[in-house]
């Protein structure tokens, strides 16, 4: 009663020694990556609160949790029906938690609350109507006398893998698309940092797509179900590490010394006591860079200053001096 995911029962003697060694290697790599990520989390964050911190922590803790119970399940070290809910719970926290990590920083580049609610709704829908039903089918297939449900679980589990991969790829693509817009007003001041951060977001999108495709390849092969179980942990541990580095870089880039909108920072990082612009869960900064530029341009014009197109984003390099004069060299070093 084994499926591609290796979560419907013990593997018994179906795995050869080389395959068992590969599985052991994947388990070890995923655990080691999680240890590194925990170090990154507790060194990087000064305040252990906020959606970003907790989603990172839960998603990372869920990986070894799921890996350990999946290993116990694969080798039949405990009753299958008792272990299955724990494996499913770990899977939910690992997958949904990682999507919430991406969502928690999306407000830095997306200024429209409607778009943010749409992404959150997509994550919620996937959890309630994809992950929960498939996990319920998995548990039901392990009830004595219901083994015939294993085939249905295999089909829906493959569909789940594809849908979750598409969701994560979509959120990563939104980052790249919206960041290109959000970075225009500040590119003249922080040109190299902007390019580096945007390049990191692009590589995050590429890496996410590549790892998800490799996971889907194993899922649809119908052969390496046991290896896929251990490989899932490696995929999500690598993606979480990369997401943490890239999103932390994005947070530092979008940080400024003051924000007139009154929004509060969700997290304080060790490198600086600056306020993060628009990072509060469910609250948006009403004066992001492009809006602030327009506001100050209007103020300057009303006072008799002829700025023309000094603060438009179409030709920012021509008017960098005006930007510094309007905002001040402290805010735009």
Automatic annotation (TrEMBL):
Keywords for the protein's UniProt record, in alphabetical order? Membrane, Transmembrane, Transmembrane helix
Q: Which InterPro entries match?
A: DUF7703
Quote the biased-composition stretches of kind Basic and acidic residues, using this chain's numbering: 315-333
Q: Where is the chain membrane-spanning?
A: 20-44, 75-95, 116-140, 197-220
Using the record's annotation, list all stretches that form the DUF7703 domain: 15-262
Where in this protein does the record put region Disordered? 293-333
**Keyword Amino-acid biosynthesis: yes or no?**
no
Q: What is this protein called?
A: DUF7703 domain-containing protein
* Annotated organism of origin: Pyricularia grisea (Crabgrass-specific blast fungus)
């Amino acid at each position: 009663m084994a499926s591609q995911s290796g979560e419907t029962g013990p593997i018994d003697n179906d795995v050869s020694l080389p395959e068992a060694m590969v599985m052991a290697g994947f388990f070890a790599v995923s655990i080691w990556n999680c240890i590194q990520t925990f170090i990154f989390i507790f060194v990087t964050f000064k305040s252990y609160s906020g959606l970003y911190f907790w989603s990172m922590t839960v998603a990372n803790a869920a990986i070894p949790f799921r890996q350990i119970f999946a290993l116990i399940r694969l080798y039949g070290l405990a009753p299958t029906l008792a272990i299955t809910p724990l494996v499913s719970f770990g899977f939910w926290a690992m997958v949904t938690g990682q999507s919430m990590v991406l969502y928690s920083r999306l407000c830095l580049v997306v200024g429209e609350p409607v778009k943010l609610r749409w992404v959150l709704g997509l994550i919620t829908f996937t959890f309630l109507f994809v992950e929960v039903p498939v996990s319920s089918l998995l548990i039901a297939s392990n009830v004595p006398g219901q083994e015939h449900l294993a085939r249905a679980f295999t089909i829906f589990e493959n569909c789940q893998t594809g849908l979750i991969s598409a969701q994560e790829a979509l959120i990563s693509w939104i980052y790249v698309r919206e960041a290109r817009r959000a970075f225009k007003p500040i590119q003249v001041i922080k040109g190299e940092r902007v390019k580096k951060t945007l390049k990191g977001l692009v590589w995050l999108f590429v890496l996410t797509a590549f790892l998800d495709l490799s996971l889907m390849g194993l899922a649809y092969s119908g052969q390496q179900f046991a290896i896929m179980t251990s490989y899932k942990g490696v995929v999500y541990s690598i993606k979480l590490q990369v997401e943490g580095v890239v999103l932390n870089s994005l947070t530092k880039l979008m940080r400024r010394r003051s924000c007139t909108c009154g929004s509060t920072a969700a997290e304080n990082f060790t490198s600086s006591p600056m306020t993060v612009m628009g990072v509060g869960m469910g609250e948006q900064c009403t004066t992001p860079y492009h809006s602030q530029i327009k506001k100050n341009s209007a103020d300057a014009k009303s006072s008799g200053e002829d700025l023309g197109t000094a603060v438009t984003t179409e030709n920012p390099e021509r008017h960098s001096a005006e930007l510094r004069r309007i905002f001040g060299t402290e805010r735009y070093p």
